[in-house]
Write a structure and sequence with these properties.
The structure holds 2 protein chains of 2 kinds. Helices cover 65% and strands 6% of the residues of chain A. Chain A is mostly helical. In chain A, helix 4 crosses helix 7 (196-205) and helix 4 (111-147) crosses helix 11. Chain A is elongated. Chain B is an alpha+beta fold. Chain B has helices at residues 8-11, 71-80, 134-146, 152-155, 162-167, 198-201, 273-281, 294-303, 331-340, 343-350, 394-404, 419-434, 446-452, 474-482, 503-518, 520-536, and strands at residues 51-56, 85-87, 98-100, 108-110, 115-119, 178-181, 186-190, 230-235, 240-245, 264-269, 287-288, 308-312, 315-320, 356-358, 410-416, 438-444, 462-463, 465-468, 540-551, 561-562, 566-567. A 5-stranded mixed beta sheet of chain B has the order 8-9-10-1-11, with helices on one face. In chain B, strands 12, 13, 14, 18 and 19 form a 5-stranded antiparallel beta sheet that branches. Classes of the chains: A mainly alpha, B alpha+beta. The A-B interface holds A 59-61, 63-64, 77, 79-80, 82-89, 106-107, 192-193, 275, 279-281, 293-299 and B 28, 293-303, 305, 308, 310, 342, 344-346, 348-349, 351-355, 417, 419, 422-423, 426-427, 429-431, 433-434, 440-441, 443, 549.
Chain lengths: 338, 575
């Protein structure tokens, strides 16, 4: 035993640990995560739902099809019998677990089954395009910011050109062109109706939104003492980028993820709504809204349900993005509070 | 004619064998339909006055009556312009008959049918107050060529001197073709060959009589004075078109140019179909041009039944299949499509069985030459056809696709981008996928789809199109749409979209047209047999016969429906 007082044990935590702890205690994170997880699981269950519950093929028109409701066989699209007897309406929602729980669309397809399949495509495109944006944006931002001079100038000008176009205008233009002719570049060949096309288009148009802030951050980091010390100690560029720069821009990249996924998902829905995203008979929430537009007066749910799911998913992603940002950069929350 | 707009190719289809067709016994009319079929009621001055408000999504281009080629404006020209002859302005099938208009009587025909002599009525004035003279008549026929009217070469090329006018339009002179005598008001029209159809050509808006000093170029948005009951006062394609009473109009023949009821006709542009419906329901408009959106049909048919008028049309929706490229260069593949399509499903998409009927033959029911047969329904084939379409036969279709060796091939379906066409397209895509193809849907702007699918350079495999009769004559369908002469590779005006050309059948069609001049009944029988022979080869898939729905405001009365130019705008009463 010594006469010295035992040293006070100071708990030392890395910024990552602090962030994780903050996130774990953030109510927004939990709500957003649960909602997102629920939606993702629901959409992944689409084939099961179509096979065992709705028992219909949501990609085949069933205009003269029938279904059984309350033990009675009814037509999926029903001819009006009142007045002049003109017009045909799809059956409405019956709110029961089974066929046509949310009614049918104007092709006689099960809306609930298409919502789930549509969600799969929307989320797939949203996440894939979002990650594509982040990957390319981060890469370009770091290369431009770290290299400086000509390389920076060259990359920045390309980003400026993309930035100069309104995102939706550029997306629509690219979609219209590529939907007509498909995409061929060397060994890469995408057919006109391919799901990869909207992924590629959306993934590219948002690149400047990630690359430019990352570039700015890297330029600032390049002047920091620890980077200069690494350069002075003879570290190679690759080592500096991976060991010094990347870990420091990583929190920003993480914050970008939910935001870019939400943006990509919204853009996909907009393009599909305009018939230049996901192509029929495939579905996405955007295409289902478009299908429902012609049924707004009689079956508003067809358009409202995918709209609601888009809102819930986008809000969840944004909540998650805010929570991650606040956790990784507490000062930002303080700035926000001020 | 496609939908409510005509195209050059469509009007080249004009058939000139007029015969009464089905009056559409199943037509439904609202309470504002007070017309007496076959004749207009006597003019009731107490009902004259007010402003008639028409609405449409868009305008129809130039106002020049010798150039404009849309039914949207042809409908208005009936009240604003006259030719030497006119289609009878009445309700019902008699509207297909031709009556004298600016001419005192139907032409005297001489010289083996190559000379037509008219006498111009005296005392008729243009809306600017000037008298109509025989010089105006001659100048108007020359103007057809000077402004390069879309039908100049198709309809009026038989006038002596027309060949030179077609070669050099700017200096067109028809001194030998149109000989006029101001002293006697006689007009002698000389043709290079007898043309049994010339009187119908002279009743079309492109043969309108205009002032001799009318510009020798497209008048665009500037109205040209006419002789009708109304005159165009102003036209802004982005906003509205206004017609007012022609102060100089005096009714001379109620059958050709009846006096109108509204004081003003205002045609507003820019409203969506939904907005048009709401405008009529809210009494802010009196009639809408565009089709009623599918989701409003049931509501309107129930709550506004007395404002709806439904008319049977001799028309068809059909799928031209490109007979010259895979997979539809294989007759079995084309037959498979015919077997697979559920016509009832397509009728449903169109609005239900009150608005369309399944069809199988190329000549619509009630049309001259129509015969009841259907090879492509369950239980039937080309050797033992049924009398009517009953139900699809998917299994047979699948088997035919396999037999044809086209299984798994890619097929692009080109449709217009409006809701109904896209829904039809989606259904067709679903069916093609079911029978073994990999189908993709290509919706194209309605403005260009019709010409796009005609041009072979676009390599369209299958498309959705419509054909609305110009005249009730079999050749208007069979020969125009499937005759060898209607197939022009690389042209936007190749109305034979299937590229179908069976020389033997083509000879039979030409012979039937010649036979029609002397023995119409025998010709029509032959057209029925030709129809069967054509459909055995399935160059197209006929889908259904549509009807037209007119939706009017509650205040509108005296609705008359001409089979030729549809609703008679000037006869609507809004007072």
């Amino acid at each position: 035993m010594t006469d010295r007082e035992p040293a006070v044990q100071i708990r030392s935590e890395s910024p990552g640990q602090i962030a994780r702890a903050t996130l774990a205690h953030d109510r927004r994170t939990w709500i957003a995560s649960v909602l997102l997880l629920f939606i993702v699981l629901l959409t992944l269950a689409a084939p099961l739902y179509a096979t065992y519950i709705s028992k219909t093929d949501p990609f085949i028109s069933s205009i003269n099809g029938t279904t059984v409701i309350d033990g009675k066989e009814v037509l999926v699209l029903q001819q009006s019998t009142e007045g002049l007897g003109i017009g045909v309406n799809p059956i409405g929602p019956n709110w029961r677990i089974g066929p046509y729980a949310l009614g049918a669309d104007n092709q006689g397809r099960d809306v609930a089954a298409r919502l789930l399949y549509g969600g799969t495509n929307t989320l797939l495109i949203g996440f894939t395009a979002g990650f594509l944006t982040i990957t390319i944006g981060t890469l370009l931002g770091i290369i431009a910011g770290y290299s400086g001079k000509f390389v920076d100038s060259f990359i920045s000008r390309i980003l400026d050109v993309i930035w100069a176009f309104p995102v939706y205008l550029l997306s629509i233009s690219l979609s219209v062109v590529l939907l007509t002719s498909g995409f061929k570049w060397g060994p890469i060949s995408l057919e006109a109706g391919s799901l990869y096309l909207p992924i590629l288009i959306i993934g590219l148009v948002y690149v400047p939104y990630v690359a430019r802030p990352i570039r700015g951050q890297v330029i600032a980091l390049r002047e920091r003492e620890f980077v200069k010390a690494a350069i002075g100690s003879g570290a190679k560029n690759r080592q500096i980028i991976f060991r010094e720069i990347l870990p420091n821009v990583f929190p920003s990249v993480i914050v970008f993820i939910p935001m870019m996924v939400a943006l990509a998902m919204l853009t996909e829905s907009a393009l599909s709504f305009l018939s230049i995203g996901v192509q029929p008979p495939d579905a996405s929430w955007g295409t289902i809204i478009k299908d429902g537009l012609g049924l707004l007066y009689t079956r508003p749910l067809v358009a409202l349900m995918p709209g609601l799911l888009i809102v819930v998913t986008a809000v969840s992603l944004n909540l998650l993005g805010d929570a991650v940002r606040d956790a990784l950069d507490p000062k930002a929350r303080m700035r926000g509070a001020l | 004619m496609m939908k409510r707009s005509k195209s050059l190719a469509a009007l080249l289809s004009l058939a000139f064998i007029l015969s009464a067709c089905s009056s559409g016994a199943d037509d439904q009319a609202g309470s504002n339909a007070q017309a007496q079929e076959g004749a207009l009621a006597a003019y009731d001055e107490t009902k004259a006055g007010g402003t008639l408000r028409l609405v449409a999504k868009g305008a129809a281009g130039t106002l020049d009556p010798q150039i404009n080629y849309t039914l949207q404006f042809w409908q208005l020209y009936q009240a604003a312009y006259d030719g030497l002859l006119a289609f009878r302005k009445v309700d019902g099938p008699k509207s297909f008959e031709v009556v004298p208009d600016l001419a005192e009587a139907l032409p005297e025909i001489s010289n083996d049918g190559k000379t037509l002599t008219f006498t111009l009525r005296s005392g008729i004035k243009f809306s600017d107050g000037r008298d109509v003279t025989v010089a105006d008549v001659k100048a108007s026929f020359e103007r057809i060529f000077k402004v390069s009217s879309p039908t100049a070469g198709g309809f009026y090329n038989g006038i002596v001197g027309a060949d030179k006018c077609l070669a050099t339009p700017a200096t067109c002179k028809l001194d030998e073709g149109i000989v006029v005598d101001a002293a006697t008001n006689k007009i002698v029209m000389n043709l290079t060959a007898a043309d049994a159809t010339i009187k119908y050509k002279l009743a079309l808006p492109h043969a309108t009589i205009l002032p001799a000093d009318a510009p020798s170029k497209d008048a665009g948005t500037t109205p040209i004075p006419g002789t009708g009951a109304y005159a165009f006062a102003s036209y802004d394609p982005n906003n509205e078109l206004k017609m007012v009473r022609n102060k100089h109009f005096v009714e001379w023949n109620r059958e050709s140019q009846p006096a109108g009821y509204p004081d003003e006709i205002i045609y507003s542009f820019g409203l969506t179909a939904e907005a048009q419906v709401n405008a009529i329901k809210n009494d802010q408009a009196d009639w809408m041009l565009d089709s009623i959106p599918a989701d409003r049909l049931a509501e309107l048919g129930t709550n506004n039944a007395d404002q709806i008028n439904v008319h049977t049309l001799t028309a068809m929706w059909y799928l031209p299949m490109n007979n010259n490229i895979a997979p539809f260069n294989n007759v079995k593949a084309r037959q498979a499509v015919n077997y697979a399509l559920d016509r009832n499903a397509m009728v449903k998409i169109f609005g239900g069985d009150q608005l369309a009927s399944p069809a199988c033959t190329f000549l619509p029911p009630g049309f001259p030459g129509h015969a009841d047969f259907c090879q492509y329904t369950k239980g039937a084939d080309t050797n033992s056809p049924a009398t009517a379409w009953a139900e699809p036969d998917l299994e047979k279709a699948k088997a035919l696709v396999k037999e044809s060796g086209t299984f798994g091939q890619k097929v692009g379906i080109v449709v217009q981008d409006d809701d109904v066409n896209k829904q039809m397209g989606e259904y067709i895509q679903s069916v093609l996928n079911q029978i073994g193809y990999k189908a993709t849907l290509k919706p194209i702007s309605s403005n260009i789809q019709f010409t796009y699918i005609q041009n072979t350079n676009n390599k369209v495999q299958i498309s959705l199109s419509q054909w609305y009769q110009d005249f009730p004559a079999a050749m208007d369908f069979s020969y125009i749409l499937l005759g060898c002469e209607s197939f022009t590779p690389g042209s936007d005006s190749s109305i034979n979209m299937s590229g179908y050309c069976n020389k033997e059948i083509n000879k039979r069609m030409i012979a039937a047209m010649e036979l029609a001049v002397t023995d119409e009944a025998a010709a029509n029988k032959e057209w029925g047999a030709i129809d069967k022979a054509i459909m055995d080869e399935a160059p197209v898939a006929v889908l259904f016969t549509p009807k037209l729905v007119d939706f009017l405001s509650k205040r509108v009365k005296n609705y008359n429906f001409s089979k030729q130019f549809y609703m008679l705008v000037s006869q609507l009463q809004v007072k």
